[in-house]
Design a protein that fits this description.
With 171 residues, the chain is mainly β. The protein has no helices and eleven strands.
Length: 171
């Protein structure tokens, strides 16, 4: 980003202090990701839960994506504008001009009852973080209680409509 350097000198031809402006050639993109972590909590096996993350170009050049990846788990998917962007498809995301943002939807669909602590890696030409990591925390869950049989028939019985009324056991 633009800046300046202040120089002090004892040269009699120059002022004691002068400023030299610094301007980047062409400008450089910088990435800001919010939030930096997504927690999906417990999600039943076979169900899905989605969270969103916003990517903003806070630099002065165009932010281009090279790849989006999640290593070690096929239980996550990532989409931008409804299109899958994991892997090399991430390079197909349109670049972001300065101050533009993109919303990614990350979906967790567990296939097993496991705790997953993983990362979504966003590759780009950002000078501040060419490989930006977003922490992904999730638990695949299955029911802990299985009741068998589902129905028990106790046969006929006495139905009491009024607790104060006389019954064969209470007179």
């Amino acid at each position: 980003s633009p800046g300046e350097v202040e120089v002090q000198t004892n040269d009699p031809e120059l002022p004691d202090t002068f400023t030299i402006p610094i301007v980047p050639a062409g400008g450089a993109p910088e990435i800001l990701v919010n939030p930096s972590s997504l927690n999906f909590g417990s999600v039943s096996v076979g169900s899905s839960e989605s969270r969103q993350v916003t990517i903003t170009n806070i630099g002065v050049g165009s932010l281009e994506f090279t790849r989006l990846s999640i290593e070690g788990s096929d239980d996550f998917s990532v989409a931008a504008d409804g299109q899958d962007v994991l892997g090399a498809a991430g390079a197909n995301i349109d670049g972001l001009a300065p101050n533009e943002s993109l919303i990614l939807t990350v979906t967790f669909t567990p296939t097993n009852a496991l705790r997953i602590d993983n990362e979504l890696i966003i590759g780009s030409n950002a000078v501040n973080a060419p490989q930006q990591a977003i922490n992904l925390l999730a638990n695949g869950a299955i029911p802990c209680l299985n009741v068998a049989p589902e129905f028990v028939d106790f046969g006929g019985g006495l139905i009491v409509l009024d607790r104060e009324a006389e019954t064969p056991n209470r007179q």
